[in-house]
Prior knowledge:
By secondary structure, this protein is mostly helical. It folds into two domains: 3-198, Fumarase/aspartase (N-terminal domain) (Fumarase C, Chain B, domain 1), CATH 1.10.275; 206-414 and 424-451, Fumarase C, Chain A, domain 2 (Up-down Bundle). It is built from 19 helices and nine strands. α14 (340-368) packs parallel to α16 and α17 runs antiparallel to α19. The protein is elongated, with a radius of gyration of 27 Å.
Amino acid sequence: MHTVVVGTSGTTVEDVVAVARDGARVELSPEARAALAEARAVVDALAARPEPVYGVSTGFGALATRHISPELRVQLQRNIVRSHAAGMGPRVEREVVRALMFLRLKTLCSGRTGVRPEVAQTMADLLNAGITPVVHEYGSLGCSGDLAPLSHCALALMGEGDAEGPDGTLRPVAELFAEHGVKPVELHEKEGLALLNGTDGMLGMLIMALADLSRLYTSADITAALTLEALLGTEKVLAPELHAIRPHPGQAASAANMLSVLKGSGLTGHFQEEEAPRVQDAYSVRCAPQVAGAGRDTLAHATLVAERELAAAVDNPVVLLGDTAGAEGRVESNGNFHGAPVAYVLDFLAIAAADLASIAERRTDRLLDKNRSHGLPPFLADDAGVDSGLMIAQYTQAALVSEMKRLAVPASADSIPSSAMQEDHVSMGWSAARKLRTAVDNLTRVLAVELYAASRALELRRHLTPAPASRAAVEALRAAGVQGPGPDRFLAPDLAAADAFVRNGRLVAAVEPVTGPLA
């Protein structure tokens, strides 16, 4: 099994996905253990002083004015975890919780939080044992970190609450710990707060969305190419020299992908052979690279933000170590936990995904309309009138797109004051991440419907030969159990199979042996 070593300098997008989705093991590097010990020494020194230090010897948030005596500090840290584990609603997905825990562990190992090495090791043990704490949908405002979600994970470190075991069964954490030889931790000064105060949940969801959207944007280039071909459109609009004069890199990449898929097609270029020749294709076909390309550039920006956040140590207060000039280590309050940078790109991606779905739906509708499909039967039906063909598949696609437009309304433009107005502006980044996950799921389904329609349309052009890459896509789709043209049948299983085909990356995998690697 792949092992991810956590050091002091952050981590990578690939490592986060490996731990969250693939169950990669986690190990702490010797440098991380040393950094943890060094930062802890600073906290211990400050805890011994009579003057109050926020997070070490005070209350929290609006209660930070109270100085907490040494004999109450273990209770203080335990109490903040218990009281902040106040989430409600459905459980969030296992991969989200694993990403959240791994990213918090990454920050602990930076040597900026002041927790003891054994706390970080217990979190690694939890991940390696496949124990996934119960985290609920609601409880984070995306400021002061993803407080309630992280608190539920911290509660598990203390051996309390419920968690999902590696077999998927929900059980008390104490039972799972005993079974897997994991010892609960007793939290000392600052440790409870350090486990709660980060953007880890929203960042984890951003990283997984980036992985999914990268695959979906390539899939969308393929489905757009298949639709262009099925509509007897022209590939001339994909010429590299046209995209070079508007130098958006994403646009050029999408056009190049489509051109690769269409290479050798016997269907493209017939648009001037009709009784009423088309001068040019409709926007949804002709502008496919411009729309998908803008989304690709949005992905690139969001990836930059994610990589910066992965290199960060997000906590409040944060430990600043002493230096060779004689400056002592100290703990300083800050605002680095604010989720605005992550929340903005989460919302931006939801907008881009909604627009990509919208243009894909318009292409699908064009395939089904006999007045605009250039010779295809109405709704791609076998015997139109007796058969309805794909009429209602487009209804389903339209419903998905409509929901995606609602999900594109930004969460980050909202803010609700909390903690007696001490925390009076929040990012709502967790909410932005949750709705983006739904949008990504819906985009997958929308592209699956376009693929289903375009593949049927290509097979109905019986006297023309599709491009080799197109044939490879259609053959792989049929091999996956998605049926071709014919009389009406129960359509939902076909659509579900097409969804799985796109979701699992098999569309891209089917085409690339012919085209070579696509962007």
